Amino acid sequence: MEQKFNASRLFIGSCLALLVTSLTFAIRAKIEGVFSSDYGLTGQEIGWAFGPAFWGFTIAMYVGGLIIDAVKTRSIIWLAFFMHLIGITLLLMATDKTMLFVANVFIGFGNGSVEAACNPLITTIYSTNKTKMLNRFHVWFPGGIVIGGVLAWLLMDQLHLSWQLLTGLLFIPLAIYGYLFFGQTIPETERVSSGVSFKDMLKNVAAPFTIIAVVSFMILSASVPAIKIDFSSSLTYIVMALIVVAVVIEGKFVNKVSLLFPFMLFCMFLTASTELGTNQWINALLEKSGINPMIILVVVTGIMAVGRFFAGPLIHKLNPAGVLLGSAILAVVGLYLLSVADGAVFTMSAAIVFAFGICYFWPTMLGFVSENIPKSGALGLSIMGGAGMVATSMVLPLMGESIDTAGPQATLRYVTILPAILVVGFIFLNVYMRNKPSQH
Fold first, then answer.
1. Which end of the chain offers a freer environment for a tag, N or C, measured as fewer CB atoms within 10 Å?
2. What is the mean pLDDT of the chain?
3. Same domain, 183 and 213
4. In 3-state terms, the chain is what percent helix, strand and coil (to 5)?
5. Do 272 and 388 contact (CB within 8 A), yes or no?
6. Treating both helix axes as pointing N-terminal to C-terminal, what angle do 7-37 and 140-152 enclose, rounded to 10 degrees?
7. Together in a domain, 122 and 160
8. What is the CATH number of the domain that holds 228?
9. Domain hosting residue 237, numbered range
10. What is the pLDDT of residues 389-415, one digit of tens each?
C-alpha cells in the first residue's frame, strides 16, 4: 500500500532541524571566548570539551545509516530531537569543562542524527529531484551560520546580553521542527520501498568491510590524540596504497560491483576538507587581509546559502558531475587568489570566487551518490557525510601546523592542491558518466 505523507511539511521540518544543527556551530564559536574569560577554561580544555560535537556528529551519522531501516526514519528523527533538547539544556547549565563536554556529546549526536535521517528522507520524498532538493535542504547549514553569527553580534556585542539568552534561542526552531514531525507519516527509505535488501545495500557501497574499516579508523584518529597519522613517513603512503588495493579487490573482484562509490568517497575527503577546513581556519588565514575575517565568513556562507537554493537550473544544465567539475575549478582559482591577495577589495573578491567554488560541493556529492548509486541507500549517504566530517577534523591540525610554521599564504597555496586533484578526478568522472549509463 502506497504511503501518504506531507512532503512539504517533512521538508520544512528537516530544514529547521538542520538549522538547529548549524546554529549550534555558530553559537559554539561565539561562546568559546566566554568560557575562557568568565569560567577560566584554557584553550586546550575548551577544545577538548567541544570535541564531541564533531566526532559525535560523525558517529551518529555512521551508526544511523546502518540502523535507520531497522529502527525506521521516525526513530532517528525523534532521537535527534531529544538529543538536541538534552544537549541544549545541559549547555545552558555548563560552567566547567566536564559539563561542557557532556552537553556537546548530546548536541553532537543530535546533529549527526539529523543528517542521518533527513538526507535519505529528502531523497525518498523527492525521488525525481534529489540533487536539487538536497541543495535546498543544505541551504540551512551556511544559512544557519549566517543567522547565528548575526544574532551573536546583535545580542552579545551590541546589546551586551548573556550567552545563555543567545543559546536559549535554539529552543525556538527545535520546538517548531518537533511540532512539524509530530504525528506525521514518515515514509520508508527509498532503498526499502524499492525492495533492495540490506545485503545489497552493503554490496553497493562497493567494498563495505574496507570502507567501514577506513572510516572507523578515521573516527578514532580524529577523537583519540594518541592515534596520529604521520604524512612525513613513507609508511603512511604504503598503508594508503594497501587500502586502495584492498578496496579495489573487494569491490571489483569480490563483490563484482562498480568502484564508483569508493571513488566518490575519496573525492568527499577532498571536497569537505577544501570547504570546511578553510572556513574553520578563516580567522587565522585572513587576519591580516585588511578586512574582518568574520565579515568574509558571513559573505562566503551567505553566497553558499543563496547558491544552493537556486541550484536547480544549474544542475539541470550541467548535470551533477559537471557542477562538481566547475566547482573544483572555481575553488582552485579562489584559493590561489586568496593566497596572493593584498588588501580588502582583492581579498573579498577572491573569497567570493572561492564561495562559488565550494557552494555546491557537499549536497551535490550526496545527490550524485543517491542518483547514480541508489542501492547504496541511507548507509551510502551516511558514510559520505561522516567521512567528510572526519576528513575535515584530520586536516584541521595539519593546516594549523602549516599556519604556525609556513604562514597563512603558504598554507592557502598548499590547500589549493586539494581542489586541483579534484579537477583531474572530476574530469575523469564526467568522461565516465558520458560513456557509461547510471547504475540502478
1. N
2. 84
3. no
4. 80, 0, 20
5. yes
6. 40
7. yes
8. 1.20.1250.20
9. 198-440
10. 777 777 777 787 788 888 889 999 999
